[in-house]
Automatic annotation (TrEMBL):
PANTHER family, per the entry: ECF RNA POLYMERASE SIGMA FACTOR SIGJ (PTHR30173:SF36), SIGMA 19 FACTOR (PTHR30173)
Protein name (record): ECF RNA polymerase sigma factor SigJ
Domain RNA polymerase sigma-70 region: 20-82
Short name of one Pfam family: Sigma70_r4_2
Domain RNA polymerase sigma factor 70 region 4 type: 121-167
Assembly, per entry: Interacts transiently with the RNA polymerase catalytic core formed by RpoA, RpoB, RpoC and RpoZ (2 alpha, 1 beta, 1 beta' and 1 omega subunit) to form the RNA polymerase holoenzyme that can initiate transcription.
Leader sequence segment: none
GO molecular function (one): DNA binding
Gene name, Swiss-Prot/TrEMBL: sigJ
């Protein structure tokens, strides 16, 4: 008589707990690599499946193994996404991570938001190759040593040092040069929101640097800017005209990618998430995400 096959071994609670404990860090890596909450969640799902197909008793460090898997999956997904983003209608901006301004981050969110998560940094990282992006993030954000990075990427330490150096030079050239205190950042946005809501042309213009730039992402699904606007006068005109054309406009303060930002509601519906770069008391860059697919997860109401 044929004996029944043994039932597959069940995963233990300890194994599930190990993945759950590492999850905030894994999401932080995947999101910074991909700039997409949805893609990051897909990568974590793939990593979860591989985790459950692996003999975990043979692993020296569960978290190190998971970080390696998530980073490599993110590199592969980013390579595929590069082609998709080249065909994207208009400018591609990262999917924003938004939290209510008044709420304190949960311990898990604190891990996800640790380090620079700003839209400005993610915008610069889009110019790097997937391997350069991974090397830069692992060194500068997650503080891994070069031996760990080399093992993770399958390259020599010397090659990893070169990648981090090139990436750091690029980031230093293009990212904001000065940090702004959160209270000062919020105060400026408060004035900008009020001036924009009421169409105060002179007040808007006074808050913008002369060479301020405006980047919009509608994804071809809603109207947006097909080029980067790099003129304070034109940006002022755009915000004033939007007030006249849109109807009832309301701005809500929120944390957008870990920094003070604004959500704009039009007639009670979320229309955009906006991030700002501030230097010397003026706005030097505005990133406006209008693509409804990238706003669908935001649960902050007007």
């Amino acid at each position: 008589m044929t004996q029944p096959s043994p039932a597959p071994a069940r995963r233990t609670d300890r194994e599930d707990t190990a993945f759950t404990a590492a999850r905030p860090r894994l999401f932080a890596i995947a999101y910074r690599m991909l700039g997409s909450r949805a893609d990051a969640e897909d990568v974590l799902q793939d990593a979860w499946m591989r985790w459950h197909q692996t003999d975990q008793t043979a692993l020296q460090s569960a978290e190190a193994w998971l970080v390696t898997v998530v980073t490599r999956l993110s590199i592969d997904r980013l390579r595929a996404a590069k082609a998709e983003r080249e065909a994207y209608v208009g400018w591609w901006l990262p999917e924003p991570l938004v939290e209510p301004e008044s709420s304190a981050p949960t311990p898990e969110a604190a891990v996800e938001l640790a380090g620079d998560l700003s839209m400005a940094l993610l915008w610069v990282l889009e110019r790097l190759s997937p391997e350069e992006r991974a090397a830069f993030l692992m060194r500068q954000v997650f503080d891994q040593d070069y031996a760990e990075i080399a093992a993770l990427l399958g390259k020599t330490e010397a090659a990893c040092r070169q990648m981090v150096h090139r990436a750091s030079d690029r980031v230093q050239q293009e990212r904001p040069r000065f940090d702004v205190a959160p209270d000062a950042h919020r105060d400026l946005l408060e004035r900008f929101a009020e001036a924009s809501r009421t169409g105060q042309r002179d007040a808007i213009r006074a808050l913008l640097a002369d060479d301020a730039q405006l980047v919009g992402d509608g994804g071809g699904k809603v109207p947006s800017f097909m080029r980067i606007i790099q003129d304070a006068g034109q940006i002022t005109k755009i915000y004033c005209e939007l007030v006249r054309a849109m109807g009832e406009v309301r701005y809500v303060h929120a944390r957008v990618n870990g920094e003070p930002g604004l959500l704009r509601y039009v007639n009670g519906t979320l229309e955009s998430a906006q991030s700002f770069v501030i230097e010397n008391g003026r706005i030097v860059a505005i990133y406006v995400v209008r693509n409804p697919d990238k706003l669908a997860h935001i649960g902050i109401g007007a």
